């Protein structure tokens, strides 16, 4: 397998013609992610392609710039690597690591729910990611099963840093997925790193039960339930997992795990993780409880099929282009 150094294209002057475009792996508000092969090296990547005009219209330039700057800073075994970036009059591009196992969300929906051991394995990796990001004052703010990928080795890779932000103290922007939003975000009190620990609590619950703790047809109904804070734990919940989730889903920031003086250590030392070696986890020495079926480095079968877009977005005039230094 190519090393990260060999995969790096950041020193090269790139254009879309340097890549053979393959299947669309995912779509979003501003564009899509495609499986691509770099023609000269034969290496495979995921190419995130975003429409400049749509980003400008939706006033998301700062978010997208921030995503690129943050990804360039991060290097962690459980975070998707960015290997290069470039732009043309219509699009901006990010060359990302291709994660062959597909979306965590797909595997969770297929399984219905995960057992205690599998849920613990994934929760531990997310804990490591947040601990690492928070040390750099980066708050992720958008944890959900759709933003986690699974690699061929069964370990996770966090992707989509569009809402991530460098926050020294607190910020006030409302963002995130309704089921995962922390109460302090809804109350617009200003929020920071503790929101990530709240979302970890929601994810653990969703992995074990198969759906999040606060659900409703209507987002307003979800928000009311989050603020009411009543959580029902089915009998299948392991008692230590339940204890940790309660400590994460605490509206009182002075009591929420991850936000106390020991930081992430309170979570890592919790009884639920007592049999886990954190060093072995980071070194990927622990056998994953599940590995996706993968036929090889170019396999895209773990990703859903998306129709191709035939509409070309308008080009952005060079004099009005905020991405000239991309």
Separate helix tally: 11
Helix and strand pattern: HEEEHHEEHHEEEEHHHHHH
Parts with pLDDT < 50 across at least 5 consecutive residues: none
Q: What's the number of structural domains?
A: 2
> What is the averaged pLDDT score?
94
Number of strand segments: 9
Largest sheet, order of strands side by side?
A: 1-2-3-5-4
User: Any idea what the radius of gyration is?
Assistant: 20 Å
Briefly note the structural class of the backbone.
alpha+beta
Q: At CATH's second level, what is the architecture of the largest domain? A: Orthogonal Bundle
Q: CATH topology of the largest domain, which one?
A: Transferase(Phosphotransferase), domain 1
Helix share, percent: 25-40%
Largest sheet: 5 strands, antiparallel
The coarse silhouette is globular
The CATH first-level class of the largest domain comes to: Mainly Alpha
CATH homologous superfamily of the largest domain - what is it?
A: Transferase(Phosphotransferase) domain 1
Keywords: ATP-binding, Kinase, Nucleotide-binding, Serine/threonine-protein kinase, Transferase
Protein name: cAMP-dependent protein kinase catalytic subunit alpha
Biased composition (Polar residues): 317-326
Region (Disordered): 294-326
Q: Would you kindly provide a written description of the structure presented here, covering whatever features stand out?
A:
The protein has 326 residues and is an alpha+beta fold. The longest helix is centred in the middle third of the chain and has 20 residues, at 116-135. The protein folds into two domains: 4-100 and 297-312, 2-Layer Sandwich (Phosphorylase Kinase, domain 1), CATH 3.30.200.20; 104-282, Transferase(Phosphotransferase), domain 1, CATH 1.10.510. It contains eleven helices and nine strands. The strands form three sheets. A five-stranded antiparallel sheet has the order 1-2-3-5-4. A two-stranded antiparallel ribbon has the order 6-9. The mean pLDDT is 94. Helices cover 31% and strands 15% of the residues. It starts with a helix and ends in a 44-residue tail after the last helix.
